[in-house]
TrEMBL record:
GO terms for molecular function: mitochondrion targeting sequence binding; peptidase activity; protein transmembrane transporter activity. GO terms for biological process: protein import into mitochondrial matrix; proteolysis. It comes from Tunturiibacter empetritectus. InterPro entries: TPR-like_helical_dom_sf (IPR011990), TPR_rpt (IPR019734). SUPFAM superfamilies: TPR-like (SSF48452). Keywords: Hydrolase, Membrane, Protease, Repeat, TPR repeat, Transmembrane, Transmembrane helix. This is Zn-dependent protease. It is found in: Membrane. It is a single-pass membrane protein. The lineage of its organism: Bacteria, Pseudomonadati, Acidobacteriota, Terriglobia, Terriglobales. PANTHER family: MITOCHONDRIAL IMPORT RECEPTOR SUBUNIT TOM70.
Amino acid sequence: MIPLCFICCAGLSLIPYAEAQRDLGSGASVSTDSAEHSLSPTEEAQRLISRGQLSEAEARLSSLATQQPEPAGVERMRGMIHYQRNDFAGANSAFEKAILQDGNDLLAIQMRGVTLYRMGQSAAAIPFLERANSPIASVNADGTYVLAVCYLEVRRYDDARRIFAQQYKIPSDSAASYLFLGRMLLRRNYPAESEQMARKALQIEPGLPLAHLLLGQLALSRSNAAGAVVEFEAERTINPMDGEVYERLGDAYLRALRYEDAQQALNCALLLEPNSTGPYILLGQVLLKRDDALTALNYLLRAEHMDSSNHIIHLLLGQAFHALGRKEDATREYKIAENIQNAVENQR
């Protein structure tokens, strides 16, 4: 089979697989031994698309489009080219034509739904994604994810939970399904709804790991350090071997000005996740607050060795060097932090 190209979709890699074309009857199978010599014109165009040769593929498709009747799949492939160029209006038009030509072209149907989603039309995208979801969900899981996200956007939370549960093979009414939905809602910046789902998960299963962790993250996002401490301490009781729990708890203690507790929690985090920069950075902050700049410097230098492009690390190194009276080193680190931050801003 000739694989279709990868398509970026809001952080996804949406892959309309060639296997789906075979299974759905919308493409032809090609032997690997004779692929280069027995390709049809449409298969040749598809091969060019899969190799990223979009202009060449477009020329082939334009030639094919003059035939009467137009060969099956031409408009879908045109839509794929427009999509990869981020020309979503053009892609939508092409996929619409493909569906008019073949109402059973499920890849075109799904891609029209994805395109409408990319155009900010989640409600309009849902019928197309729903129609394509069941037949090809096992082939293209990313399309299923886009459908679930569309449900979130239009606040059809039960439908989104059902889709996520199906995708991750968990019971749709389980505590885990509500917690998963809560995490996805937080990712989509729906904090109130996220909290509601996390609390529902705990009602179903009070000892569910990661639920209090999510509630603690929500509390921190609202600058409620005391509330975050309560949630992270509850998570520690349920899930004592997760290093992230201690890192988050240390952060909450730091914000609550409980520096000794923060240092103890972050030391535990280091033992459980020694390759993560987070605990080192937070320990540097805690030790600076406790006027132990020399020890802070050691932790921050370790963090800098692990991630030299983090401007926060260099900013804290500057503070540590300044506290130790090493002004030239402090100035250097402040400058590095500024340069990194400016570079990031320029890339936006």
